[in-house]
Design a protein that fits this description.
By secondary structure, the protein is mostly helical. It has helices at about 1-15, 20-25, 30-65, 75-90, 95-120, 130-150, 155-160, 180-190, 190-200, 200-205, 210-230, 240-250, 255-280, 290-310; strands spanning about 315, 320-325, 330, 335. It has one domain: ABC transporter involved in vitamin B12 uptake, BtuC. The protein is about 65% helix and about 0% strand. The protein has a two-stranded antiparallel sheet. Strands 3-4 form a two-stranded antiparallel ribbon. The chain is globular.
């Protein structure tokens, strides 16, 4: 995956309306070098950070909630981040990108905490029930956001964050997404703690792991990653839901063993979708949210039927059949194969 990611990254740098070739850059074409540095390279870095960040955020939320269908999309994190941006636009019309990011961070963290607190109070925690509750909660937040946007005539200003796209990513307007790098590193450091917390409160206490502290730290990391991406790129659904599930089908559910693979596959997935959006109606460009939405919805339906039919069975490479993952607790307190 590392080799594939490098190849796709190099190809991505030379795909666009303005024709840029390696030869012209080597010859020192100043105008093309400016486009390359101001637009193409920042766009590639934003794509990679988005793919890595959203995938890892989804993996963390799935592990902490012990549910493979929880993600920034189905956990109201993205909707909350958009609500925070609207609040910044209402109360600080002349706010900078960093000021909006602070509002988005606060709203995303609060919305994610409320969602997890709410599902902890629900007695009937079916594997499909939890994400449906998250989707409904996210739609409530989205409805409030749209209502306030219409009431105060902020719909046009908010539209840039409702649909994810990389067309406006340029040097000086994307650096916030670099926050995903230390946050992903932090997630890797505490990966074992997230695994233990995902096994339940009593199990965590028996091993001396502070359940509430690790839970809210993990949720905060996932929310901050999501918010930093939404502020720069906009809303991009399904990445945090699809990528961790696909990787888990081959690598299992242990977060430390799958985190690097999830990050790499997420970057590849977003990069491929972005390149499709740039070439499918060339010279025009489709928002990446549209491409990922189409592919993600199809994959989500497939994963839904697969999980309902096979539970947490994994596909083992090099094996003739399908073998079971290590038994892990489900949301009802029992064990699934």
């Amino acid at each position: 995956m590392i080799i594939l990611l490098i190849i796709l990254s190099v190809v991505s740098l030379f795909v666009g309306v303005i024709d840029i070739t390696p030869g012209e850059l080597i010859n020192g074409n100043v105008e093309l070098w400016e486009i390359f540095i101001i637009s193409r390279l920042p766009r590639l870095l934003a794509i990679l950070c988005t793919g890595v960040g959203m995938s890892v955020a989804g993996l963390i939320m799935q592990q902490l909630c012990s549910n493979k269908f929880v993600s920034p999309t189905t956990g109201a994190t993205i909707s909350s981040a958009q609500f925070g941006i609207l609040l910044a636009l209402l109360f600080m019309p002349a706010s900078t990108l960093w000021s909006r990011a602070i509002f988005s961070f606060a709203a995303a963290i609060a919305g994610t905490w409320v969602f997890v607190w709410f599902i902890q109070k629900i007695q009937f925690k079916d594997v499909v029930m939890v994400p449906l509750v998250g989707i409904m909660f996210g739609n409530v937040i989205g409805g409030i956001t749209n209502y306030l946007a219409y009431k105060y005539e902020m719909t046009q200003a908010l539209s840039s964050w409702l649909v994810g796209h990389f067309s406006l990513v340029i040097k000086g307007r994307y650096e916030i997404v670099w926050l995903t790098v230390p946050l992903v590193i932090l997630a890797f450091i505490f990966a074992n703690h997230f695994n233990i917390v995902g096994l339940g409160k009593d199990f965590s206490k028996n091993l001396g792991v502070p359940y509430n502290l690790v839970l809210f730290m993990g949720l905060t990391v996932a929310a901050m990653i999501t918010a930093s991406i939404v502020v720069v790129v906009g809303s991009i659904s399904y990445i945090g839901l699809i990528v961790p599930n696909v990787v888990a089908m081959f690598k299992g559910d242990k977060i430390r063993g799958t985190l690097v693979d999830t990050a790499l596959f997420g970057a590849i997935f977003v990069l491929v979708c972005d390149m499709i959006g740039r070439v499918v109606i060339f010279p025009y460009e489709l928002p990446i949210e549209l491409i990922i939405g189409i592919l993600g919805s199809l994959i989500f339906v497939g994963l839904l039927f697969y999980r309902l039919k096979n539970g947490r069975k994994a596909i083992r490479l090099g094996s003739a059949g399908v073998s079971s993952c290590q038994a892990v607790p489900n949301l009802k307190g029992g064990n699934e194969a």
